[in-house]
TrEMBL record:
Pfam families: DUF2961. Residues 424-443 are annotated as: Disordered. This is DUF2961 family protein. Residues 424-435 have a biased composition (Basic and acidic residues).
């Protein structure tokens, strides 16, 4: 039997009967258009791999742009080049903006061993620790995000994502992305994996990840100041806590990220974590002392990023927004029957903020029934969108009205040509998808 193990330094000197392989978005025609264009409303399979094996690393970067007006360059000329204009505007040549919410509109799904339901389902950004569709750089052991300063802490900013969680499987592994946006987006990716010549050991479990959200949490006194005497009441049941994970079976919880949009204007924490393991009623097997304490900080969250815990986005960078992470890599939470990971939203669930989380765990049998809310219920809490508004036609001069009409005609032709380019790219995406599946199923 094979045991993929965790590839830390102690594992590097061990010889293993394994074949290292990669599926990626590389331009299979040998040119430089190394991304796949994912159609609006469609699903594309990044990987379909024959087992036994183990996915050892995922890397992605992506873009999603909305065209606000026609460019001066024929969009069909970009058919075989890197998407320079699809990342940055060249003023006067093109006019596009990043879709601010697309990290929440795209889902990543993973299926193990021919399961008909996903063991991983989460918005693409949140899976990698990008909360609120707003990337901030961090480097933890199992996850990292890397964003340029000018792309950091803005909605829809571009970034590189990495995941190093081990994802073993015996028969088959499938990774898909589902674009629930109304426009296409571009996906670069690596899926690095090993294939083995013998089945996995019996004690190897399947990787899981699940996203949840409450917007707003059902707080009983959001208008009262946090830590005031009036809110210092007893919570001796855990009823009404925010649920990070609820699952049945045998496994081990290995961490989460938590995104909070805080509307009250003071402090969003003070909530204790409560882990109900197996047959726990009250008290739970694990009871903590406060939100920042669960994330291994104190006196609030610090703008600090460590290997096991930290702030991917700190509220001092963007007031009102916080993204925290905690990985249980040396202290996994074991369960034999079931597990419910919860945390109070404010002491005794006082606050009514926007909370969203991604939980990570391993389980002996792939879980069932993991779903996420519809796309309209995943959109981050934001100050507004970036759609330009037009002037009242009755206030325009004839010259102004003619200029606007001419721009509309030029934009219609530009969009027609751009649609030609998109269709060509989509055809190549489907061709590359088929080749990747063939490669993943080969010996």
């Amino acid at each position: 039997m094979s045991n993929p193990g965790f590839s830390m330094l102690s594992d590097l000197s061990r010889m293993k009967n394994a074949r290292s392989r990669r599926l990626s978005s590389w331009d299979q025609e040998g040119r430089n258009q190394d991304y796949w264009l994912i159609p609006a409303g469609e699903t594309v399979r990044l990987a379909d791999i024959r087992g036994p094996g183990c996915i050892t690393h995922l890397w992605t970067t992506q873009f999603c742009r909305r065209v606000l007006g026609p460019g001066l360059i024929d969009p069909t000329l970009g058919n075989y080049v890197a998407p320079v204009f699809e990342i940055h505007n060249a003023l006067g040549l093109n006019w596009e903006v990043a879709d601010p919410h697309y990290y929440r509109k795209v889902l990543i799904k993973m299926y193990w061993d021919n399961a008909d339901e996903p063991s991983v389902i989460a918005p693409l950004g949140d899976f990698f620790g990008v909360g609120h569709s707003m990337p901030g750089s961090y480097s933890a052991l199992p996850m990292s995000v890397s964003a340029k300063p000018e792309e950091s802490f803005i909605f829809g900013g571009s970034a590189a994502f990495n995941c190093y969680f081990q994802m073993p499987f015996n028969e088959r592994a499938i990774i898909e992305v589902e674009n629930q946006n109304d426009v296409p987006y571009g996906q670069y990716f690596y899926v690095d994996y090993e294939q083995y010549d013998a089945p996995l050991d019996d004690d190897i479990a399947y990787f899981h990840a699940h996203w949840r959200r409450e917007n707003p949490c059902k707080g009983w006194a959001p208008g009262l100041q946090v830590n005031s005497p009036e809110v210092n009441i007893a919570n001796l049941t855990g009823e009404g806590n925010y649920t990070i994970l609820e699952t049945e079976g045998k496994g081990q919880y290995v961490g989460c990220n938590l995104s909070v949009a805080h509307f009250q204007g003071s402090w969003w924490g003070e909530g204790d974590e409560m882990f109900f393991i197996d047959d726990d009623q009250w008290p739970p097997s694990i009871h903590g002392t406060g939100t920042e304490d669960y994330f291994n900080h104190a006196w609030g969250m610090q703008d600090k990023k460590d290997l096991y815990n930290g702030s991917a986005l700190h509220e001092s960078k963007v007031p009102g927004y916080q993204v925290s992470y905690r990985f249980h890599l040396t202290d996994p939470v074991r369960f034999d029957k079931r597990l419910r990971v919860t945390i109070e939203h404010g002491h005794a669930n006082q606050l009514s903020d926007d909370w969203a989380s991604t939980a990570y765990w391993y389980q002996a049998v792939p879980a069932k029934g993991l779903t996420v809310p519809p796309v309209e219920d995943r959109i981050p809490s934001t100050p507004g969108n970036r759609t330009p508004t037009l002037a009242d036609p009755s206030t325009l001069s004839d010259t102004q009205a003619t200029a606007i009409a001419d721009a509309a005609k030029r934009n219609a032709e530009y969009q027609r040509l751009r649609d030609v380019e998109i269709r060509r790219k989509l055809e190549r995406t489907r061709e590359r998808e088929a080749r990747n599946i063939q490669f993943g199923q080969s010996e």
